[in-house]
Design brief:
By secondary structure, the protein is an alpha+beta fold. It is extended. The protein binds zinc ion (2 copies).
Length: 939
């Protein structure tokens, strides 16, 4: 049996399909059977089993004993030299590989073709070996999951490259040692734990330092003025603008002088025509691909994720590559004819007709991988919009590398205007070349009219513009990746992940990226105490030495031990200044939560989160000052400070951020607080604009405050007497109660109304409130017909009403004093509304529920009182029993008849005798003659 191990399930499936299709040429496409073994999907055909890993199926971790952060003996520093162990992360896959290996006669490792893939392959190899010492293990290497690449790779198997895998392993170990020990140290120093630990990493920190550096450059930047001169003229009616040959005047006086010296006519003194070659772009490596995708507004991580999807599905080659030169083995003709089947066939045909002799080539040539290129034909309808955009970019780039250069003709004029010289340059795209099929950079032409030496032109205006120098721009993600590559930080596979981590850990934000205060705080604390972790050089050295493991110049252990020495040096610096570093970071992180001054007492206002999900802005003067501003629950996102400041209140804006959701812009928290509380304040009957303005002036913003703060403060704010304030507070209590009921109603509607397109539960709730239905009782009292006007179908209205009545009545009856145990019995007997307690005789209530008569009477009396109905006369068990006996003594009156009489409130012969026979017959359904006969028997 031949066992094939791929990197992921989808790759395993495609490899199985391809090999099955080509292995038996006559019976084309041996059927691949999909099965599930040990919870792992497998693909079988002939005597072959293919399965996919889940990337790494083992992970490295420290030996036991290092998990306690507060351990006295195993301090963060001891992690540097702690031993590591490998632990399976996907136990079922590991177990299945072991099981299948025992029976295998051949194993092929078909993981991705790079350092990470080699390591994953080596991990699989070790699992195979642990179960079977002798089975031959081969390695299949391919750059795309296409029929041609896969069959070639399996026809020419190679061996695992243990040096390459060791390089990957060294990275794993080193990243663990650095990340864990530094993160632990810094978090403890800054007293951060749980979710808010401060992570520090070997690649991450120098990258962050770079971003912080750029921000400081921008902050320190002082714009300098400069002046630019130009003249407006025309040649036979075609307008022309000519610039002064001094591009920027640094001195205002000089610029004014030159302006004054500029006199008509403008004489053409020189005409130079030329051409310029606009080279077709080089093939894509990972970095240039991310840059190009960035121009299409894809984040680095997103672009890579989509590219990996396309690779797994055989549409493009492996997207992690440093190579920018197509290898000889790449069959470009075959690729072009394949791409004719894609949605870009027109562009392919054009390229074939205009093909350049040799494809373009970039500066980096390596043997592992070809540059990113399309591998299979795709049509837009087969892909998502984003996938298509990335695929199209890669195809067009590939075609561009086969297309001729573009050519521009240029025209440069020189002019004299009195004592000053001016110039104008024009350019025209003479041959579009690759630009025909690669439209991603704009070709901006400047067309100038034909002019000859000696031409004399008028001067319409002389412009003297004052401008200012601008600071360097912040890094875009793709610029950052380019810069990391230049500095040797990280690898093609990890750079975009490092940036993603900086974002998710809230060290940086925005596009282009800028550091948060925490991000700045961590870097500045390190730099202030000369902790060498922010210096890219050390990281680059390790990176370089890891490359040398690949070439067998250094061993895994040598490089790890070198990095441990470096890490000890970092710790020397850290431990010497532990306290200051902690304090500096804490200072910065507090600062990040301060949004301005308290309007009541002048202390700082700070964003605070409680242990639960609630968050608010509180005064640091608490408990002396209780001023606070409400914020939506943290379930909507964590509140963070923004740079913008409210013009009215001088407070920083706040936004709520939540992973995977668009941020919620709160704006000025106090403006938001005021507007969200205004409506509720206006619900107090005696509230008006003037009164609310007076409350605001005293920093009282919510009904809750009106109901709860000391009466003296209200008196002061409104300038009225105690009695008026007492009234007002009562009103506020009423509003709070109303709001509570309304929110209960909303919650109920949310629970029972299914959201539909264009009809959210919130919309239904809003319609109810609009119609004056403010609580569950109001809803329960509605008719189904009225409810169908609230975006509900008839059936939905019925169900909602039924639910509302059940819930409301149950709550009402509980409130009126019917205990839960009894209530259960009443409901089971079909007595479910307060009204039925008032209408029915307690004897009947008792009879059908099995509750004692006295108790049932007590319940009925309580409900009647609460409903404002005269309670029934007291019922005793003894009287009832007597009446019952009397009634049952009447010939022909049995238990069933008795129940009907009870229902009508007839509990003894006196009652029966005194009743109107006709009425009673109607209510009980007992024939009137029979009732008359009973009545006769009573007398
Ligand atoms: Zn305060
Ligand atoms: Zn405001």
């Amino acid at each position: 049996m031949h066992l094939i191990i791929a990197e992921k399930n989808i790759a395993a499936k495609r490899i199985a399909d391809i090999l099955a299709g080509s292995s038996t040429e006559s019976a084309k496409g041996a059927k691949v059977r999909t099965g599930k073994e040990n919870g792992v999907i497998t693909y079988r055909f002939d005597d072959v089993i293919t399965l996919g890993l889940r990337g790494h199926v083992v992970e490295i971790d420290f030996e036991p004993g290092y998990s306690n952060w507060r351990s006295e003996t195993n301090t963060p520093r001891t992690l540097i030299d702690a031993g590591t162990v490998k632990k399976p992360t996907a136990k079922n896959i590991v177990a299945l590989i072991k099981k299948l290996s025992k029976k295998a006669t051949l194993v092929t490792i078909a993981t991705d073709f790079d350092r990470e893939g080699e390591l994953i392959g080596k991990e699989a190899y070790e699992i195979v070996r642990s179960a079977n010492k002798d089975v031959p293990v081969q390695r299949a290497r391919f750059s795309a999951i296409t029929a041609q690449e896969i069959t070639t790779a399996f026809d020419n198997p190679a061996q695992i490259d243990f040096d390459l895998a060791a390089a990957g392993e060294a990275r794993q170990v080193i990243d663990l040692l650095w990340g864990a020990s530094l993160t632990r140290f810094i978090s403890i120093a800054a007293k951060r734990g749980g979710k808010s630990i401060l992570s520090v990493g070997r690649v991450q920190s120098p990258t962050l330092a770079m971003i912080v550096d750029r921000e400081r450059e921008i902050e320190a930047f002082v714009p300098e003025p400069y002046w630019m001169l130009s003249v407006e003229t025309d040649k036979n009616g075609t307008p022309v603008t000519a610039r002064h040959t001094t591009d920027r005047f640094q001195d205002r006086a000089e610029a004014l002088q030159a302006e004054a010296n500029t006199t008509a006519p403008l004489v053409v003194t020189s005409v130079k025509a030329g051409t310029r070659t606009d080279h077709a772009p080089a093939p894509f490596d990972t970095t240039s691909f991310i840059v190009a995708a960035g121009r299409l507004r894809f984040s680095a991580a997103n672009a890579m994720r989509i590219a990996e999807d396309l690779y797994m599905n055989g549409y493009i080659s492996y997207p992690r590559t440093d190579n920018t030169v197509y290898p000889k083995s790449l069959d470009i003709d075959a690729l072009l004819s394949e791409l004719k089947k894609s949605g870009l066939s027109r562009e392919v045909t054009w390229t074939e007709a205009h093909r350049r002799k040799e494809p373009t080539r970039g500066k980096k040539s390596s043997t592992d991988h070809p540059p990113i290129h399309p591998a299979g034909a795709a049509k837009p309808e087969k892909l998502t919009d984003d996938q298509w955009k990335i695929y199209e970019l890669i195809v067009r780039r590939f075609l561009a590398t086969l297309s001729p250069d573009a050519r521009w003709t240029t025209l440069k004029y020189l002019f004299d205007a009195g004592q000053e010289t001016y110039t104008a340059t024009g350019s025209r795209l003479a041959e579009a070349g690759y630009r025909e099929i690669y439209p991603y950079s704009e070709a901006k032409e400047t067309i100038l009219p034909v002019m000859n030496e000696g031409d004399r032109l008028p001067i319409h205006t002389v412009n003297n513009e004052e401008k200012y120098t601008t600071p360097p721009p912040r890094y875009s993600q793709s610029k950052l990746i380019q810069r990391m590559e230049e500095l040797g930080l990280g690898t093609k596979s990890t750079r975009h992940e490092v940036i993603g981590k900086l974002v998710s850990r809230r060290y940086v934000e925005g596009t282009p990226v800028r550091p948060t205060l925490v991000g700045k705080g961590v870097i500045e604390a390190m730099e202030n105490h000369e902790v060498p972790i922010t210096d890219p050089e050390m990281t680059a050295t390790i990176e370089q030495h890891m490359e040398e493991i690949k070439e067998a110049k250094l061993t895994r252990d040598e490089v790890i031990s070198e990095s441990q020495t470096m890490l000890h040096r970092v710790f020397d610096a850290l431990e010497a200044h532990e306290e200051e570093i902690g304090r500096e970071i804490m200072g910065r992180t507090d600062e990040e939560r301060i949004i301005g001054k308290c309007p009541v007492c002048g202390h700082d206002l700070m964003i605070r989160q409680t242990k639960g999900m609630s968050q608010f802005i509180g005064c640091t003067g608490y408990p002396d000052c209780t001023f606070n501003i409400g914020l939506p629950s943290a379930a909507w996102g964590t509140a963070i400070r923004e740079d913008k400041v409210c013009e009215v209140h001088g407070l920083n804006y706040v936004r709520l951020i939540r992973k995977g959701a668009r941020p919620w812009e709160i704006g000025c928290p106090l403006c938001n607080h005021i507007s969200s509380n205004r409506e509720a304040l206006m619900m107090m009957p005696s509230a008006d604009d003037a009164m609310i303005a007076r409350l605001h002036a005293s920093h009282i913003y919510s009904v809750y405050e009106v109901a709860n703060i000391e009466p003296e403060r209200l008196e002061q704010a409104l300038g009225t007497d105690r009695a008026t304030i007492a009234c007002l507070r009562e009103e506020a209590e009423g509003v709070l109660e109303l709001l509570r009921k309304r929110s209960e109603l909303k919650k109920f509607v949310r629970k029972h109304v299914v959201p539909r397109r264009g009809r959210s539960p919130a919309k239904v709730a809003a319609a109810l409130v609009e119609a004056g239905v403010g609580d569950l009782g109001g809803l329960a009292a509605m008719t189904p017909a009225a409810l169908t006007k609230m975006h509900l179908s008839e059936a939905e209205a019925e169900t909602l009403l039924g639910e509302a009545r059940a819930v409301y009545n149950r709550a009402a009856l509980r409130e009126y004093g019917v205990p839960a145990v009894s209530l259960k019995k009443y409901f089971e007997a079909g007595i479910t509304t307060p009204a039925s307690f008032c209408a029915l005789h307690p004897a009947y209530l008792s009879l059908i529920s099995g509750i004692k008569p006295e108790t049932a009477w007590k319940h009925a009396a309580a409900v009647c009182t609460a409903m404002g109905v005269t309670p029934p006369e007291k019922v005793t068990a003894k009287a009832l029993e007597n009446g019952r006996k009397e009634l049952l003594d009447i010939p022909g009156l049995g238990e069933a008849m008795l129940e009907r009489l009870y229902r009508a409130g007839i509990v003894d012969t006196a009652g029966l005798a005194g009743a109107d026979a006709g009425e009673l017959a109607k209510v009980t359904g007992i024939p009137v003659e029979k009732i008359r006969a009973f009545q006769d028997a009573c007398r």
